[in-house]
Design goal:
This protein has 394 residues and is an alpha+beta fold. It contains 16 helices and nine strands.
Length: 394
């Protein structure tokens, strides 16, 4: 059996000055409840070959579990207990605080994390929900109290924000009754989610900026070119997805083919698109020798301008359609992946027939649609460049 779901509360929901609340809360859900301590919960899971994990992201937090069919009531019971009756024991709070601070320190020593966090701060504003780090800040994590975290959990981990998918050998009616028994009487209102998502549009003026994050004694540097992109529910999303794949979503996509295969400048380069309920970021990633950072970024911009001006070929479009539809099917190769996909589909309100519709949507796209969407949403006129590593300010 596979269980997956999401809680519509991610780091963007952290209160100002309390960045890290979501990250710590998701870890604390497994640290004990009012009924069972951490060791008792772990024993119940391990003794029955079960697993249950939580992870915080930008807009939401995800959970995933696995068990045998006969143990589904036990697994869902533990999930309900952790969500509805969290204990947040003082020793657990301190353990999670130390773990989060260690993660922040590792992140501060990572060239990608340093560049990415700074890039988001430049795009969205460092004091805004889409601009601060998912892990939080060291100062805020140090200051968060048990009462802060319990209050945050009570106000944000609420039934109106929770989606649950179950896949496996189940009796649908009996499972629905079980879920209703465990969660049906949980009546807590949600918050103003729309204002959080809209904050991604209330951003800094568009333009261009370049910034160097100096990190001494690094043999490699990370260069990121970033701009604000598109929302998941926008009509042009699929055309932009295809454009991103052709530009930097594959080893032989335009970006890596130019920078690595032809020029030999980079150890790897690609682009990725974050599209959520709020306007996400489009990111060009380049891992490079610090001495080549400036030239590599110039070539990346040149390729971006070229695709923006010339558009894509019919051959490229057919390649993208073949890969994206085929890979979509491959990704649904086990019940855990199917459960996660169903939760994702529900989160974005894509409809229960989405798995059947997706190939048709992608295959219906034309070159004109892809070119138009790329020019509209990913114009090379507005971006930030952040380079992290042993780079001189050039």
């Amino acid at each position: 059996m596979a269980v997956a779901g999401c809680i519509g509360c991610g780091s963007a929901f952290d209160p100002p000055g309390k960045q890290g609340a979501t990250c710590m809360t998701m870890q604390l859900l497994s640290e004990g409840t009012v009924l069972h301590d951490k060791l008792e919960l772990a024993a119940m899971l391990e003794d029955n070959g079960m697993a249950l994990t939580f992870a915080a992201e930008r807009e939401r937090s995800d959970f995933a579990g696995r068990c045998l069919s006969e143990d589904l009531p036990l697994l869902l019971g533990i999930l309900a207990e952790e969500l509805r009756q969290p204990g947040f024991p003082p020793e657990g709070v301190e353990r999670v605080r130390v773990h989060t601070l260690n993660s922040l320190r590792r992140s501060a020593d990572d060239t990608f994390d340093r560049a990415y966090n700074r890039g988001r701060a430049l795009l969205y504003g460092g004091d805004q929900p889409y601009g601060w780090p998912t892990l939080g800040t060291e100062q805020a994590v140090q200051s968060l109290t048990r009462e802060d975290l319990l209050g945050f959990c009570r106000d944000n981990v609420v039934p109106a924000r929770i989606l649950l998918a179950i896949v496996g050998d189940i009796d649908s009616a009996a499972t629905a009754d079980l879920v209703s028994k465990l969660f049906g009487d949980w009546k807590v209102p949600g918050g103003d989610d729309a204002a959080i998502y809209a904050s991604a549009d209330n951003t800094l003026p568009l333009g261009k900026a370049t910034e160097i994050v100096t990190m001494p004694d690094r043999s490699n540097a990370t260069v990121l070119i970033m701009r604000r992109g598109i929302k998941r529910n926008e009509e042009d999303y699929y055309a932009v997805m295809v454009a991103n794949y052709l530009f930097g979503g594959d080893f032989l996509a335009r970006l890596n083919e130019r920078l690595r295969v032809r020029e030999g400048f980079t150890y790897g380069s690609y682009s990725f698109l974050n599209a959520g309920r709020g306007r996400g970021a489009w990111t060009l990633y380049i891992q490079v020798n610090p001495a080549n950072a400036k030239q590599a970024s110039e070539i990346a911009l040149e390729e971006w301008h070229r695709m923006h001006t010339e558009g894509i070929s019919e051959e490229e479009l057919q390649k993208a359609k073949s890969y994206l539809t085929g890979n979509f099917a491959v990704q649904l190769n086990n019940i855990g992946a199917i459960a996660s996909a169903l939760a994702e589909i529900a989160y974005h309100n894509l409809g229960l027939d989405y798995v059947e519709r997706y190939p048709r949507i992608v295959n219906s796209l034309t070159r004109e649609q892809v070119d138009s969407a790329f020019r509209k949403h990913l114009s090379p006129e507005d971006y930030v460049i952040v380079a992290a590593g042993s780079i001189n300010d050039q």
